[in-house]
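Colleagues,

For the teaching module next term, I've prepared a clean inverse folding example: a structure given as tokens, and then the sequence designed for it. I'd like students to try predicting residues themselves before seeing the answer, so please don't circulate the second half yet.
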């Protein structure tokens, strides 16, 4: 079985060595880069499955690197940064990062985030023709071709906007989508600040797909956005 390859972009040698040693011990194949330019070279040459990125690089800001890599690659990008402000997280996620982990962090949490990224990779490969496939996540089923949504085998009636919202979340399962990203995708750039309306639509959608005592498919990241959670099994 081929190892999952990870490109670690970190200019702090001690942290880079710690990450490499931990990931090697957990059967990942690692490449390392200390600068943005080297990271771009290795990303194109090695085509890693996952990218772990520190935002504070000596030659460019990590957000610029995310934007440049996103212009040609869809590999999961996990940001690990000492920047803990919501605006920093939102900027990185809007640029195309899939997840954000604030330093200091535990290696157990990092490994858990990587497992989420691996599941996303598997899902993308499985559903390369997503528009004509069926999305299954626990008891939630979406038939994109038929335009139907079901929970535990029972059809759920959604409004057109609720359906667009759930499709956006499911096609980015495991990834935190910021408020502004969702609003821009659903209504356009002019509505990027209308978070109140988004909360209303999200609340009604949740009432329809999340039953009392049942699984919670949508996770709220306060001040940042929402994520469709990948259910186990």
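(Answer key — instructors only)
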């Amino acid at each position: 079985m081929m190892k999952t390859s990870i490109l670690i972009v970190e200019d702090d040698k001690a942290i880079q060595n710690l990450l490499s040693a931990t990931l090697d011990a957990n059967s990942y194949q690692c490449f390392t880069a200390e600068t943005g330019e080297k990271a771009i070279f290795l990303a194109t040459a090695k085509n890693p499955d996952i990218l772990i990125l520190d935002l504070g690089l000596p030659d460019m800001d990590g957000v610029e690197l995310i934007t440049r890599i996103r212009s040609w690659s869809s590999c999961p990008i996990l940001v690990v940064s000492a920047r803990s402000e919501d605006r920093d997280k939102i900027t990185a996620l809007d640029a195309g990062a899939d997840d954000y982990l604030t330093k200091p962090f535990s290696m157990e949490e990092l490994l858990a985030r990587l497992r989420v990224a691996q599941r996303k990779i598997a899902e993308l490969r499985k559903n390369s023709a997503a528009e004509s496939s069926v999305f299954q996540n626990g008891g939630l089923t979406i038939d994109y071709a038929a335009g139907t949504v079901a929970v535990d085998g029972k059809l759920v009636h959604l409004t057109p906007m609720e359906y667009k919202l759930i499709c956006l979340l499911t096609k980015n399962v495991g990834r935190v989508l910021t408020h502004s990203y969702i609003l821009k995708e659903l209504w356009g750039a002019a509505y990027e600040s209308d978070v109140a309306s988004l909360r209303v639509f999200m609340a009604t959608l949740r009432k329809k797909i999340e039953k009392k005592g049942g699984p919670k498919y949508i996770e709220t990241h306060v001040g940042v956005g929402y994520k469709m959670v990948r259910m186990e099994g």
